[in-house]
Amino acid sequence: MIIGAQKAGTTSLKNYLGQHPDLETHPHKEFSHFFDANEYSKGSDVAFQKYFDETSSKPLFIAKNAGLFVSEPGILRLKEHNKDCKLVFMLRNPIERTYSSFLMEKNYGAIKGSFESLEPIIRKNDITDWRFEFFVGMSLYCNHLSMLQKHFNKDQMKIIRYADFKNNPAAICTDLFKWLKVDETFVPDTSVKHNVTHVNRSSNYGRFVVQLLRNHSPLKKIARIMMPGKMDYKVGEMLRNINKTNRLHSKMPESMYHLLREYYEPFNNELSEMTGIDFSDWNQKAHKK
């Protein structure tokens, strides 16, 4: 199970691993079965029928939910389903992850205003504000890792630095194939980057698509009737892609970079101590242009 973090290359990793002849994955961006209590209540058989190819004879399943690492109820459901499950935790520089997450939600029309509008929330450490929890709290990896280690052994968990994955995705896949005890000589096609955040054409259209794709949307229910099985998710992808341009967002403001660097530094240092992995490069004072 690829459990996160959001905006850390998890969709690309899922798709690369899924090319292996012994690994079956889902075409959907997210496997919501463990994260969503209502979906979980319907049972694993319903979920596997929804997300996976039931005719597949592949011995291992790769599932991904980029927000599962912050949900202890979801992690407990995963443990109940398979206590021997292996977890992959992708970690991106928290400053970059926060900004990328903000831009994605802005594309979806979920938030208005500039990135600087988060400054007072961060300075007040306002954990009651959903924006703090979503953009900042999800980047406090040491807190979430502590929760994960209460329920799964360390040898069941593989921590991957996003920068390492970005620089050499094939090598990361080879290491994971070896860990999963499948043919490590298989080389997936890693030329395509998935779920990259580009500038949207229209924020209003972005909000419209989000509302349209909610589970209780009448149009989504109609789409499921007309396209049963595993086809309905493709409608959402098509509608989102219509709104995308090829332009990337501008760099984050210098002032926000330094505010976040100072805020995250003690958490990054704690993460280094917990994992034995050096994350000190996340604390660099220079803002890359």
Write the layout of secondary structure elements.
Layout: E1 2-4, H1 10-17, E2 23-25, H2 37-41, H3 44-51, E3 60-62, H4 72-81, E4 87-91, H5 94-107, H6 119-124, H7 130-136, H8 141-151, E5 157-161, H9 162-167, H10 169-179, E6 198-200, H11 203-212, H12 218-226, H13 232-242, E7 244-248, H14 254-275
Parallel strand pairs: 1-4, 2-3, 4-5
Antiparallel strand pairs: 6-7
Protein described:
The chain has 289 residues and is mostly helical. Helix content is 48%, strand content 9%. The protein has 14 helices and 7 strands. A 3-stranded parallel sheet has the order 1-4-5. Strands 2-3 form a two-stranded parallel ribbon. Strands 6-7 form a two-stranded antiparallel ribbon. α8 (141-151) runs parallel beside α14 (254-275). The longest helix is centred in the last third of the chain and has 22 residues, at 254-275. The protein is globular, with a radius of gyration of 19 Å.
Based on secondary structure, the structural category is mainly alpha
| Uncertain stretches | none
Mind describing the biggest β-sheet? Answer: 3 strands, parallel
Walk across the major sheet and give the strand order.
1-4-5
Please tell me how large the radius of gyration is: 19 Å
Strand content: 5-15%
SSE string, helices as H and strands as E: EHEHHEHEHHHHEHHEHHHEH
Question: What is the mean predicted local confidence, pLDDT?
Answer: 87
DSSP E strands, number: 7
- The oligomeric state is single chain
In which range does the helix fraction lie? Answer: 40-55%
Number of contiguous helices: 14
Q: How far from one another are the termini?
A: 34 Å
Shape: globular
